[in-house]
Amino acid sequence: MTDLNRSGPTAIDLFSGAGGITLGLLQAGFDVRLCADIARACALTHSRNFPRITFLNRDIGELGGRDLLQHSGLKRRQLDLLIGGPPCQGFSILGRREIDDPRNGLFGQFLRLAFELQPKAIVIENVPGLATLNGGAILKEIGQAFAAAGYRADCAELLASQYGVPQMRWRMFFIAWRGDLGIASGGFPPPTHGRRGIGDLVPNHTISPEDMRGFLTIADAISDLPAIGSGGYSSVYDRKPRNGYQRTMRAGLRTELYNHYAPKLSPQNLRRIEHLGPGEDWRNLPRHLLPLGMQRALRKDHTRRYRRMTWDGVARSIITRFRDPKSGEYIHPDQARTISIREAARIQSFPDWFEFMGTYSSQYDQVGNAVPPLLARAVAAEIAGVLNGAVRGDGPVKSRYKIVA
């Protein structure tokens, strides 16, 4: 459990999910007044990890600005930061990318509440695919909405690996400042890992080994966790941490270990996994072990399916289906199983004291949908610096996309 800081800048976290953004805000010194999410399992996880932060287990469409102000103890225009990640499945390149997907309406609900509250800063986290949806129409609409409400907004794609998260996870961040503050831009944190800056690396393009040097590897993230089998669970550490990242993740704990459960796999999938060496995928399997559909697949396709991790590699983006070996590169580097919930949480940069509640299925969803806390912390710390004047917010961020009012 993280201590609250009632002297820091204030924040409200909407669509808070398991609490990755909330944790990052707290680590950056924010006074988090309120969180909200419709998922019951997320409410249980928040109650476990943030018992002193008010949590509204409600549909955002049922909430108004007055509700948020009442529960946060703030007045209109007094809130420093409103932040959230409206569900992005409708925008994602992994989804249908249809502009009329009903989940896309939640983005508008977030903006409605933001403009009712009139906070100093607004941060929206989403998938990079949002910028090109419907030929860029959504990006244009967002810019028009911010401008009409009196905000100046920028957007940029941030790579979690550049901020100490052991994972190649791309997220789009929109950061907007209320016009009367005189802040032209700012809030995008300079990377702390690797040699490149914001905008130098972009999604869906090959990143050279030189540019990945300094990123945390799978070994950095999970090599100290106990060996378990498919469907297995361990509640105690059996070895010491091996590096600074692992020591940070285990801080405050002695022997107890939470959520280290490996999904139970079918006999067929176990046979497939046992045939794979580090870095190998479905193309290395005997034909008789392949699912029927993949027996007809071209060998240049689906190169991450049934792929086994390598200890010296950087993890791919954790998704809710990390329990399924055909979903991507989620097979443990040297054990016959996919990664555990705790291992996925480590790769997302959740510390080990953070316990996910609810059914295993809901825990997969919570971990896969979360914003990495260390990425959220980096953004929050930069925003706090702009708010208190320690960081100048007067320069544009390097980005492939621009918000035009």
List the helices and strands and how they pair.
Layout: E1 10-14, H1 20-27, E2 31-36, H2 40-49, E3 54-56, H3 65-72, E4 81-84, H4 105-117, E5 121-126, H5 137-148, E6 151-159, E7 167-168, E8 170-178, H6 209-212, H7 218-222, H8 244-249, H9 267-274, H10 292-295, E9 315-316, H11 341-347, H12 360-369, H13 373-387
Helix pairs in contact: 1-13, 3-4
Supply database-style keywords.
Rossmann fold; 405 residues; 9 strands; two-stranded parallel sheet; 27% helix; alpha/beta; seven-stranded mixed beta sheet
Describe the 3D structure.
This protein is α/β, with parallel strands linked by helices and 405 residues long. It has a domain at 10-206 and 371-387: Rossmann fold (3-Layer(aba) Sandwich). Helices cover 27% and strands 11% of the residues. Strands 3-2-1-4-5-8-6 form a seven-stranded mixed sheet, sandwiched between helices. β1 (10-14), α1 and β2 form a beta-alpha-beta unit. It is globular, with a radius of gyration of 21 Å. The model is unreliable at 89-103 (pLDDT under 50).
Q: Just name the CATH architecture of the domain at 10-206 and 371-387.
A: 3-Layer(aba) Sandwich
Q: Please report the first level of CATH classification, the CATH class of the domain at 10-206 and 371-387.
A: Alpha Beta
Proportion of residues in extended strands: 5-15%
**How many helix segments?**
13
- Spell out the helices and strands N to C: EHEHEHEHEHEEEHHHHHEHHH
CATH-level-4 superfamily name of the domain at 10-206 and 371-387 = Vaccinia Virus protein VP39
Q: What is the total tally of β strands?
A: 9
Lateral strand order in the biggest sheet: 3-2-1-4-5-8-6
* Largest beta-sheet characterization: 7 strands, mixed
CATH topology of the domain at 10-206 and 371-387: Rossmann fold
Spatial extent as radius of gyration: 21 Å
Residue-averaged pLDDT: 91
Query: For the terminal residues, how far apart are their CA atoms?
Result: 41 Å
Derived structural class: alpha/beta
List unreliable stretches of 5+ residues. 89-103
Helix content: 25-40%
